[in-house]
Amino acid sequence: MKFLPHYKRYFFTLLLFLGLTQPLLADTQQTGLLWQISKPGLKSSFLFGTIHSDDPRVIKLPQAIHQHFVAADSVTLEITLDFSNIMKSLFSIYLPPTKTLDRLIDKTEYTHLVKLLNEYGVPEEATKRLKPLAIMMILSMPKSSSGEFLDLQLYQQAQAAKQAVYGLETVEEQLAIFDVLSIDEQIMLLKDSLKYLDDMPTILEKLHELYLQRDLTALLKFNEKYMNQGEYQELVKKLMQKLIDDRNVLMTKRMQPRLSEGNAFIAVGALHLPGDKGILKLLEAQGYRTSPVY
Fold this sequence. Notes:
The chain is of the alpha/beta class. Helix content is 50%, strand content 10%. It has 15 helices and six strands. A six-stranded mixed beta sheet has the order 4-3-5-2-1-6, with helices on both faces. It is globular, with a radius of gyration of 19 Å.
C-alpha cells in the first residue's frame, strides 16, 4: 500500500485526538504538567501530562521534567509505541472490506474530502477506506511535519536508555472508540465538524499556548468550548464517556503496580489529568498525594 510510509503521521493525529477531548468537570484550579505522586511507605513517582504533538515548542522536555524522566526506574505511556502497535492502530481506522467512503456519502462531499485529506498527505486509496470518525480526527489536527511526536520520543529515549517501558492500555482498547458510534453517526459528526474546519488552526494554536503555560484548568475550559460548538451534543457525550471517563478509570487502575514499585515516570495526555473525573482526583481518592512539580 503506497500510503504506509505516512503511518507515523496518521498515528500522531490519532493520539492527539485521544488526548485533546476532555469535558470540563471541575472548577478547582490545577496548574502543572508534572506531578509528584506519593503515599506513605512508597517511593514517589511522577505523572506527566503530554500533548500528543510534534510541535518544536513541546517535544523538548524542560530540565525540570527531563531530570525525573531519566532518573526513573520505569517509563509508562498510554500504550507502548512499538511498530507493531502503530500498525495495528493504522489498520483499525479503516472501514470493513465491504464498505468504502465513496458509497457512504454523496459524490460532491466525497470529492471535497479527498481534496482536503490530500493536503494531509493522505492519498485517495486511503481516504476511501477510512472510517468517518478517523477522517474527522485527521482534519481536526495540525498537519504533522515529522510524526516524531512527544510520546514517541519518550518511548524511543526510554528504550535507548534501557528503562523498563509499560503501557496502560492495549491498542485494541484505545481503538474501541471507533466502535462506539455507528457509521451513520460518525458521518453526522464528520459533516458537522467540517463547518468549523477553518477555525482549527486558531483553536490548536491556543491549545498549545495553554499547554505551554501549564494551566490545565484553562486548557480544560477552552477545550470544552471547542467540543460544545457542534450540533450533535448527545453523540459527543456518548463519545466522551468512552474516550475519556472510562479510560481515566482504567489507566488509573493499570498504573497501580508501577506506583507501588515507586520511582515511576508515567506520561498520559494532559487533559486526562484535571477535573473531578480526571486521573489526579482518582489518585487522590485512593489515598495518594498529588503535588505539582513543574
